[in-house]
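Reading a protein record of the kind used here takes only a little practice. Think of the row as the fold of the chain written in a discrete alphabet. With that in mind, consider the following protein and its fold in token form:
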Amino acid sequence: MYIEEEPADRLARGVPLHEALDTSVPAAWTELDAGIRARGAGRASPLPTRHSLRALPEGPPSAAQEPLVALALCHPNGRVREAALERAAGVPGLFPLLLVRSTDWAPPVRDRARELLAGTTAAQLAPLAPLVLALAGRDRGGFALAALEGALRECPADDVRPLLESGDRAVRRFAHRVAVDRRLLSAAELAATAAGARDDARLQVICAEAALALTPDGEGFDSVVRPLLSARSPQVRATGVTGLRRTGRHGEAAAYLADRSGLVRACARYVLRQGGTDPLPLYRSMCAEPSEHPAAAAGLGECGTRDDAGVVETLTAHHHPSVRAHALTGLRALDAVRAEAVEPLLDDPVPAVVRGAARALLPYAAGLDRTRLLARLGPDRPRAARTAARRLLDAQDRARVRGLPGV
């Protein structure tokens, strides 16, 4: 049987670091550290000793000697690790292991590693930002993170910008926070990033809020607010809607009253009210043409009165599935769910509507007919219907345990 050779084994054979492991992956360094310790603790091994290190020629280790020093830096014996630090100082290839040792559990090793790392520059630390951020999750990982942050806050802007495009999500977020604090990016650049960073909701919010904060009142609609309003992210669109108030365009928030996101709808109502417009009549008007404004039914429920419950309930039977789904959201917001009117939607052909019906019926599960719910578990029923029925049956069971009426 073939057993893949471990990086520690390759280093023991003298294989260079860049060949023994993928040095671009942060986990490779921490796994190497753990692997060498396990190797030394678990069986006899040719790990270097302090005598081995003393036998090396004076000066920085050669490329052929780096594997031995790397092994010593991860040695189970803290005295060997501490001795290896002196050999690793100033050697670029071993710099990642110095960072690892700055989190060492042994104070002499940890303190010496930090002394050797003192004064490192952004140019030295930036390429290792993924490793630094990975180490920050350790109990003693704050030193490296503080060193990186301090270096990035003092370095030329050109040293920060490459990190903004890093393939590591955590690095991108960290670099953008530094760039925002240092005002290295314009409001327009931040808005463009917020609108375009589709795979990272947290980065979107960081950039969207910073873009708006940098925009003076009454300015920046085309360069900042418009890109935010066009974003796919609800959080970014919500920030853009809030920006309409900053730019004095309160009335334009009406276009977002029927946004598919509840957060955006809430922001639109806030902006309209700040401009002196009551959104409720607008919602009632939109619900007269629900196909053009499917989410208006949800919005009417969110800001309407009990008098609007009849209109919203009627829309649960609309031919457009999005209207039906949003009408269920509106009924929940109004606390006007009638189980007998909503239960038939558990058999709706559209899964989103079925899920919405199940959410709406959960508070009333104890009173639902158990036989009908069990019938929906049949293998011939759609998956969404089976899942909804199981969810409601589980809620019934919990209600029975609590002794609630209706079960």
Summary: The mean pLDDT is 91. Residues 288-336 form one domain. Residues 383-402 form the longest helix (20 residues).
